[in-house]
Amino acid sequence: MKKPRKKFKFTIIHVLVIMFILLVAGYSYMIISTYKFNHTTHVLDFSDANKSKKGVIEFDDVKITIGLRRGNNVSWENAEDFDDDWKIVPGSSVGAIFEAKITNLTEHDIENWKLTLEIPEKMAINDGWNGEIEIHQNVETADEVVEKVLFKDKNDATLKLKHVSATGGTVIPLEPGDFFVYYPSEEAKETVIPKTSLQKDKSSSQVIGFIMYFPHTKNKHHEPAFTVGTLEYEMTISIADSKLFVWLLIGTVIWFSIIGSLIVSHFRLKTLVSRQKRDELIIDQSMQTFINFIDSKDPNTRGHSLRVAKFSELLVEKMGYNVIDCKKTYYIALMHDCGKMNIPDEVLLKPGKLTPEEFQIIKDHTKYGSQMLKDFNSIEDIDVGARYHHEKYDGTGYPEGLKGEEIPLIARIICIADSFDAMNSKRCYRDRLPKDYILKELKDNAGKQFDPELVEVFLELIEEGKIQIGEVREDTK
């Protein structure tokens, strides 16, 4: 039996608590970072783009292509023209269909986007599809007019913007510096531009179209460059897309698996403890029966073994041992005097002073006890307590004259408990000794008969009232 080391015990509960904290922190970080990512507005200014060629505005995340729509009937001449005040006059103007294609280059969906284009020269917008177009007119003057127009539903009578009703429909004149903002149509499923993983599908890009008229121009292939503008958008990710989510999911499964195992182990342990209690009860009853034989042989020391066992158990508990070691100590101490069964009654019960020969017979009870218990394998070292509990710390004890820590700890514990009970009990040859005398004997024999460290602990138990002097409690009789 070794002294317990006072150190931190890292248990499975500590592992579970640490795992739980890490999982909560991980999930919290993932939720917060995902929320922030999904609610961050990105603004791309055309001036910051990599303009590799006319009409192509490329960023790390997005590519925007703006120009005439390819194919037939893209541009046409119009018999009508507009003067400088945008009144219809005879002549010729050109109409053209423009497209702006927005391609998602990222691994995340683009949502809640809007495209702003500044007018590079004098022109008029005639149509746009499918979403709303917010037109900013007269931006360079103090008379700016702003209005959202859904061209398919527009009503000239309610239009606040300056406009002209021409043969080709309503045209809204714009000057350099004016601009319009395109808001995608949810009905036309333009609001989301899918991530790159779907890039082979045409839906990975969104295309918007608008018709522009150019006055005093007879070139049907006239194509002004829209070089000023911005694209605003948000990108969305799912929590499940995060690599951290996979690790957290694995950690969660492991955590719940451990919890499940602990629950199963708890019920198994509960059954085992119940069985162990029954076994302990059998051991207790068996040992108590044997102790009754010893007590019946020497009525003067009735209850001595039980009290020594209790004092020894209190001592190791105070020293910090676990429940199992405390119970083991109790059993070993309980059997420390079993060897007295082999001592003749005339020697054991003699009221007067023993002769040297008789005292040697008494001393032999340690050897007899050790011999009796050597095959008792259910409790480790149970024979050690019986053999060495009369060894003294200074080496003057018996049966082998062991010294200091050569004496097994369990024997040193029983030694002080045994001596204390002998002094605190009435014997056939003397009365119970006074309290002051007992305390003095314990202190004076520290380092001689007793382990000095154990004496300090034992005195603390007396001071705390857990071991009482001058009183033999009924539960230890």
Roughly what fraction of the amino acids lie in strands? 15-25%
Largest sheet: 9 strands, antiparallel
Q: Which regions contain 5 or more consecutive residues with pLDDT less than 50?
A: 473-477
Write out the CATH superfamily name of the largest domain: Hypothetical protein af1432
**How does the overall form come out from the CA principal axes?**
rod-shaped
Report the strand count: 16
Mean pLDDT: 87
Specify the structural class: alpha+beta
List the secondary-structure elements in sequence, H or E.
HEEEEEEEEEEEEEEEEHHHHHHHHHH
- CATH architecture of the largest domain, please? Orthogonal Bundle
Helix content: 25-40%
Count of discrete alpha- or pi-helical segments spanning 4 or more residues? 11
Distance between the termini: 27 Å
Q: Which CATH top level class of the largest domain fits?
A: Mainly Alpha
Radius of gyration: 50 Å
Total individual domains = 2
CATH topology of the largest domain: Hypothetical protein af1432
Strand and helix layout:
Elements: H1 12-38, E1 42-45, E2 50-53, E3 56-58, E4 62-68, E5 75-82, E6 88-104, E7 109-118, E8 123-129, E9 132-137, E10 145-149, E11 164-166, E12 169-174, E13 179-183, E14 192-193, E15 205-214, E16 229-236, H2 243-297, H3 304-318, H4 323-334, H5 345-348, H6 356-363, H7 365-373, H8 382-388, H9 409-423, H10 435-444, H11 452-464
Antiparallel strand pairs: 1-16, 2-3, 3-4, 4-6, 5-6, 6-15, 7-13, 7-14, 7-16, 8-12, 8-15, 9-10, 9-13, 11-12
Helix pairs in contact: 1-2, 3-4, 3-9, 4-8, 7-8, 8-9
